[in-house]
Design brief:
two-stranded antiparallel ribbon; 2 helices; mainly alpha
């Protein structure tokens, strides 16, 4: 589970940084339901959080479901015949 969190956090960081550079060109940006963003850092944070948080939660749920069936492969027990 730590690998999922590290991977998703790294992905979020890269998307956030690239979002800042792109959205600086488009400032101010309007987002329906949130209003107008004049700060590219805040806009990128909100924009990327909207899909990255659910993506991380879904990955954690899927991993927790697959842990028990895949445990023999993680431990190498399938090789000991």
């Amino acid at each position: 589970f730590p690998a999922i969190l590290i991977g998703c956090l790294g992905r979020f960081a890269i998307h956030h940084l690239s979002g800042i550079t792109i959205y600086k060109i488009l400032v101010p940006t309007e987002v329906s339901g949130f209003g107008v963003f004049s700060n590219p850092h805040l806009y990128s944070l909100v924009y990327n959080s909207v899909y990255m948080v659910p993506n991380t939660l879904i990955a954690l749920v899927i991993a927790s479901i697959l842990v028990m069936p895949m445990k023999k492969y993680f431990t190498g027990a399938d090789l000991l015949r």
